[in-house]
Amino acid sequence: MITAIGTGTGAPLDASAIDALRAAGLVVGAGRRIEAARLLPGAGGAAEGSGVVVPASGDPGSFGIVRAFAERFGPAELDIRPGVSSPGGHEEGFVADFAADFVEDFVVGVGAGKGVPAEEVVGLVEDTLRDAGISPASVTALATVDTKAAEPGVVGAAARLGVPVVTYTADQLAGVDVPNPSAAPLSAVGTPSVAEAAALLLGGGELVVPKRKSAPEGRASMATCAVVRRSYQAPLTSAPPQDLNGTGTAIKESE
């Protein structure tokens, strides 16, 4: 059983939340939440197999943790303890239902010409997200072909968003069906699609914004992007590791 507890709402934990922390065999979460849990006498000291407790910042579900757990392990394995500030009070299940309906994560696929200015990629990504009504805070990663991992424009966009860059080989991207293949990337890097294919390969969900080109004044476009709503139906091991420092570190996905 995984128990998710809302914390950091400005109100003290109730007795049931404190009891859950004390009885947990494993407490998982951000460093400051773990440290707070350690201050409870006997917290995390139960026998192995007695359950996992996740102290979430605010109400569990606000950042998709409930949705991810539910889709990976099943709703029956979750015990949701909303923070007292939540609209549902302490009604179990409210936050899980809310999160399933409204919390979304997205990935952005990026294609970049050699020497593309960082501001061109950043501007394209930001404009695309704004026009689609997508908050930059809901983007979890940028994806591109491995030969473009060090392009300043790609690295700069990832750093601006505070997300990692995930790369794929041209062969991996060439195997993805896309609505807008092109001869240009096929000639340049060996795949008919970079932005759409990379976003689809990483996100595994719906292509919500097809390939879009930058529009600099006085010259041809040097950047493309596409946006995919991330699916959590794939096995957990298929998700790439995250660069928690948000420096745009490249993570290469091997075949």
Q: Tell me the span between the first and last alpha carbons.
A: 34 Å
The low-confidence parts are: 41-47, 86-103, 233-255
Shape call: elongated
How many whole angstroms does the radius of gyration measure? 21 Å
Q: Biggest sheet: strands, sense, closure?
A: 6 strands, mixed
Question: What would you call the structural class?
Answer: alpha/beta
Number of helices: 9
Helix content: 25-40%
For the largest beta sheet, what order do the strands appear in spatially?
A: 8-9-5-6-7-10
Question: Helix and strand succession?
Answer: EHEHEHEHEHEHEHHHEEE
Number of strands: 10
Overall mean confidence score, pLDDT: 74
Strand content: 15-25%
List the keywords:
alpha/beta; disordered C terminus; about 260 residues
What does this structure look like?
The protein has 255 residues and is an alpha/beta fold. Helix content is 31%, strand content 21%. It is built from 9 helices and 10 strands. It has helices at residues 15-23, 31-38, 65-73, 94-102, 118-131, 152-161, 170-174, 183-189, 195-203; strands at residues 2-7, 26-27, 52-57, 78-81, 106-112, 139-145, 165-168, 207-213, 223-229, 250-252. It has a 6-stranded mixed beta sheet. It has a 4-stranded parallel beta sheet with strand order 2-3-1-4, sandwiched between helices. Strand 6, helix 6 and strand 7 form a beta-alpha-beta unit. Helix 5 crosses helix 6. It is elongated and about 65 Å long.
